[in-house]
Design goal:
By secondary structure, the protein is α+β, with helices and mostly antiparallel strands. 48% of the residues lie in helices and 9% in strands. The chain has one domain: Cytochrome p450 (Orthogonal Bundle), CATH 1.10.630.
């Protein structure tokens, strides 16, 4: 197949279950691929890593032309974006720099590390339930409730709100899918507005209280007289709530699935629990929880013989880059928990948009992988059902049996 005739198909049969052969073809056939729907795809490690580091935009106002699949963005503008484009994910410097500085004051590594005893408690409770039952769905018992509970408690979200918030964040995660239909875009806008309203009520309730949680800290965050406006605060809290668990669910569930499918690596981690830190990096490389990232070029970019014009929508295929043999070597498709450069994965981003919650995700995953493998000698994988997503991809159900 020639490069000129090739069109990458995100919706090919079997893609959601196993996209990696499709990404391999993309890397080899058209590593800088101009899709007929009006966007570019990058899939080689070096190109994706450079795009992450460079100062390109995340704001649609810099587009020179709207991709045809963005059906109603041109008329709705920021109203078509999650949290109306006010969250960190959608802001460029200097606004992004200012917001991140304020948010980071309440999201420090020290604050995250202080959560370790609570995370251990939650993991052990889940493993107790699985052990007692003798069989369980890892997603339902561990991978979802762990990060959901942690981010809820971290932010200080009352438990009475949890069920509806869970529904809303699930809809918003669907809104991150490529080529979202007009109906899904409409549902996403509705979910975003409802989530914003719930968070706004929570912010008003929190003011004046002396709670020790992230939301209270964000209310108090200030730098040289600068504070978050009410709309900015609502957007950051809502964004952190969505990002704080949806992606980590995929990391934990996908990581346990990969370990169960590679019993020699499972045995290695069980024998060497100190390997868990590096295991997180390798597992997030091997099966990337968020597979795609977008940027809008500020100037022309030369990539492997092609020139991407300024103002272009560029999709970086993180999952493809994380298995690029040009960077990782001939064993790029293999799982090796002791891979010495696993930490160079592109899963958490780089540059100004490096994931603000990366330390929390790593901590939750490390404890889950380490204690799961120590607790169960030889769990039996009884199947997997994928969530059907292209971008925020992971198992929706992962039934196992334990001796």
């Amino acid at each position: 197949m020639t490069g000129s005739a090739y069109v990458f198909d995100l919706f090919a049969d079997g893609f959601a279950e196993n996209p990696y052969p499709h990404y391999a073809e993309l890397r080899e056939t058209a590593p800088a691929h101009e899709h007929p729907l009006g966007f570019w795809l990058l899939s080689r490690y070096d190109d994706v890593a450079r795009l992450q580091r460079d100062s390109h935009s995340v704001d649609e106002q810099h587009l020179s032309r709207l991709p045809s699949w963005k059906s109603d963005s041109g008329t709705l503008g920021k109203e078509n974006r999650m949290m109306r484009g006010l969250a960190l994910l959608d802001r460029d410097p200097p606004d992004h720099t200012r917001l991140r500085r304020l948010v980071s004051q309440a999201f420090t590594r020290r604050a995250v590390e202080a959560l370790e005893p609570r995370i251990i408690e939650l993991v052990d409770e889940a493993l107790d339930r699985i052990s007692e039952a003798g069989a369980a769905d890892v997603v339902a018992e561990l991978a979802f409730p762990l990060p959901f509970t942690v981010i809820s408690e971290l932010l200080g979200i009352p438990r009475v709100e949890h069920d509806r918030l869970r529904d809303l964040t699930g809809t918003l995660a669907l809104g991150l899918e490529p080529l979202a239909s007009p109906d899904l875009q409409s549902r996403t806008r509705g979910a975003s507005r409802e989530l914003e309203a719930m968070v706004a009520d929570l912010v008003d309730w929190k003011r004046g209280r002396r709670d020790d949680d992230l939301l209270a800290a964000l209310l108090a965050a200030e730098h040289d007289g600068d504070v978050l406006s009410r709309d900015e605060l609502v957007a950051q809290v809502a964004f952190l709530y969505v990002a704080g668990h949806e992606t980590t669910v995929n990391l934990i569930a996908g990581g346990i699935l990969a370990l169960l499918r590679h019993p020699e690596q499972y045995a290695l981690l069980r024998a060497e629990p100190a390997l868990a830190v590096n295991a997180v990096e390798e597992l997030v490389r091997y099966d990337t929880p968020v597979q795609l990232m977008r940027r809008i070029t500020r100037e022309p970019v030369s990539v492997r013989g092609s020139v991407i014009p300024a103002g272009s929508w560029v999709v970086a295929c993180l999952a493809a880059a994380n298995r690029d043999p040009e960077f990782w070597g001939a064993d790029a498709d293999e799982l090796r928990l002791d891979r010495d450069n696993a930490h160079r994965n592109v899963s958490f981003g780089a540059g100004v948009h490096h994931c603000v919650g990366a330390a929390l995700a790593r901590l939750e995953a490390r404890i889950a992988f380490e204690r799961f493998t120590q607790r169960f000698a030889a769990p039996e994988l009884q199947g997997v059902r994928w969530n059907g997503r292209i971008n925020v991809r992971g198992p929706a159900s992962l039934p196992i049996a334990v001796p």
